[in-house]
Amino acid sequence: MTRLALTALAAGLLFSTAAMAATETFHATLTGAQQVPSVQTSATGSATLTIDTATRKATWSVTYSGLKPFAAHIHGPAPAGKNAGVMVPMKVGPSPITGSATLTAKQLATIEAGDAYVNLHTAAHKGGELRGQLTK
Predict the structure, then answer these.
(1) Predicted confidence (pLDDT) at residue 5 exceeds the cutoff of 50
(2) How many angstroms separate the CA atoms of 46 and 44, rounded?
(3) pTM of the model
Protein backbone atom coordinates (compact mmCIF):
# COMPACT_ATOMS: atom_id res chain seq x y z
CA MET A 1 0.00 0.00 0.00
CA THR A 2 1.33 3.44 -0.83
CA ARG A 3 1.96 6.10 1.76
CA LEU A 4 -0.89 8.20 0.36
CA ALA A 5 -3.31 5.26 0.61
CA LEU A 6 -2.25 4.57 4.22
CA THR A 7 -2.74 8.23 5.12
CA ALA A 8 -6.19 8.23 3.56
CA LEU A 9 -7.11 5.02 5.41
CA ALA A 10 -5.90 6.44 8.74
CA ALA A 11 -7.85 9.67 8.19
CA GLY A 12 -10.99 7.71 7.37
CA LEU A 13 -10.66 5.65 10.55
CA LEU A 14 -10.12 8.79 12.61
CA PHE A 15 -13.22 10.49 11.24
CA SER A 16 -15.41 7.38 11.55
CA THR A 17 -14.39 6.93 15.20
CA ALA A 18 -15.17 10.57 15.96
CA ALA A 19 -18.53 10.23 14.24
CA MET A 20 -19.45 7.30 16.53
CA ALA A 21 -18.87 9.36 19.68
CA ALA A 22 -21.94 11.13 21.01
CA THR A 23 -22.68 13.57 23.79
CA GLU A 24 -25.85 13.29 25.83
CA THR A 25 -27.12 15.98 28.17
CA PHE A 26 -29.44 15.42 31.12
CA HIS A 27 -31.12 18.01 33.35
CA ALA A 28 -32.86 18.03 36.72
CA THR A 29 -34.77 20.63 38.69
CA LEU A 30 -34.05 19.99 42.38
CA THR A 31 -36.89 20.41 44.88
CA GLY A 32 -37.82 19.19 48.33
CA ALA A 33 -41.10 17.84 46.97
CA GLN A 34 -39.21 15.21 44.96
CA GLN A 35 -37.53 13.80 48.09
CA VAL A 36 -38.90 10.47 49.31
CA PRO A 37 -40.45 11.27 51.71
CA SER A 38 -40.88 14.89 50.60
CA VAL A 39 -39.50 17.72 52.73
CA GLN A 40 -40.58 21.33 53.21
CA THR A 41 -37.81 23.68 52.07
CA SER A 42 -37.44 27.01 50.37
CA ALA A 43 -34.12 25.87 48.87
CA THR A 44 -33.87 25.45 45.10
CA GLY A 45 -31.44 23.90 42.68
CA SER A 46 -30.77 22.52 39.24
CA ALA A 47 -28.34 20.05 37.71
CA THR A 48 -26.87 19.48 34.27
CA LEU A 49 -25.04 16.28 33.44
CA THR A 50 -23.19 15.85 30.13
CA ILE A 51 -21.89 12.43 29.12
CA ASP A 52 -19.47 11.49 26.33
CA THR A 53 -20.89 8.07 25.45
CA ALA A 54 -17.67 6.89 23.78
CA THR A 55 -15.57 7.37 26.92
CA ARG A 56 -18.49 7.33 29.42
CA LYS A 57 -17.03 10.49 31.00
CA ALA A 58 -19.73 12.41 32.87
CA THR A 59 -19.34 16.10 33.68
CA TRP A 60 -21.77 17.92 35.95
CA SER A 61 -22.75 21.30 37.26
CA VAL A 62 -25.19 21.55 40.17
CA THR A 63 -26.41 24.96 41.29
CA TYR A 64 -28.28 25.56 44.52
CA SER A 65 -29.42 28.29 46.88
CA GLY A 66 -30.98 28.41 50.32
CA LEU A 67 -29.05 25.48 51.84
CA LYS A 68 -25.59 24.24 52.77
CA PRO A 69 -25.11 20.65 51.56
CA PHE A 70 -22.65 18.34 53.27
CA ALA A 71 -23.02 15.67 50.57
CA ALA A 72 -24.17 15.44 46.96
CA HIS A 73 -24.63 12.35 44.80
CA ILE A 74 -26.16 10.79 41.73
CA HIS A 75 -28.36 7.96 43.00
CA GLY A 76 -29.82 5.03 41.11
CA PRO A 77 -31.30 2.91 39.78
CA ALA A 78 -34.66 4.33 40.83
CA PRO A 79 -37.56 5.96 39.03
CA ALA A 80 -39.11 9.14 40.42
CA GLY A 81 -40.77 8.41 43.76
CA LYS A 82 -38.36 5.62 44.74
CA ASN A 83 -35.04 5.73 46.60
CA ALA A 84 -31.75 4.11 45.62
CA GLY A 85 -28.15 3.96 46.72
CA VAL A 86 -25.32 6.25 45.68
CA MET A 87 -23.99 5.67 42.15
CA VAL A 88 -21.66 8.64 41.77
CA PRO A 89 -20.40 10.80 44.64
CA MET A 90 -19.88 14.51 44.01
CA LYS A 91 -17.37 16.70 45.84
CA VAL A 92 -19.39 19.35 47.67
CA GLY A 93 -18.41 22.97 47.52
CA PRO A 94 -19.99 26.35 46.97
CA SER A 95 -22.59 26.59 44.22
CA PRO A 96 -22.09 25.49 41.54
CA ILE A 97 -20.81 22.02 42.38
CA THR A 98 -18.79 20.87 39.38
CA GLY A 99 -16.89 17.70 38.66
CA SER A 100 -16.54 14.65 36.49
CA ALA A 101 -16.27 10.88 36.70
CA THR A 102 -16.01 7.94 34.36
CA LEU A 103 -19.21 5.90 34.52
CA THR A 104 -19.53 2.15 34.25
CA ALA A 105 -21.62 0.81 31.39
CA LYS A 106 -24.36 -0.06 33.92
CA GLN A 107 -24.35 3.48 35.39
CA LEU A 108 -24.62 4.98 31.90
CA ALA A 109 -27.54 2.68 31.05
CA THR A 110 -29.27 3.62 34.32
CA ILE A 111 -29.00 7.34 33.59
CA GLU A 112 -30.11 6.90 29.97
CA ALA A 113 -33.16 4.93 31.18
CA GLY A 114 -34.23 7.87 33.38
CA ASP A 115 -33.59 5.90 36.57
CA ALA A 116 -31.09 8.25 38.25
CA TYR A 117 -31.46 11.37 40.35
CA VAL A 118 -29.30 14.08 41.90
CA ASN A 119 -29.62 14.52 45.65
CA LEU A 120 -28.26 17.22 47.98
CA HIS A 121 -28.02 16.24 51.67
CA THR A 122 -28.00 18.75 54.55
CA ALA A 123 -27.69 18.61 58.33
CA ALA A 124 -31.42 19.41 58.60
CA HIS A 125 -32.34 16.68 56.09
CA LYS A 126 -29.69 13.97 56.19
CA GLY A 127 -31.61 11.79 53.72
CA GLY A 128 -31.69 14.68 51.27
CA GLU A 129 -33.19 18.16 51.09
CA LEU A 130 -33.23 18.63 47.32
CA ARG A 131 -33.74 15.98 44.69
CA GLY A 132 -34.28 15.93 40.94
CA GLN A 133 -34.67 13.12 38.42
CA LEU A 134 -32.19 13.33 35.52
CA THR A 135 -33.95 13.51 32.15
CA LYS A 136 -32.82 14.25 28.58
Answers:
(1) no
(2) 7
(3) 0.84
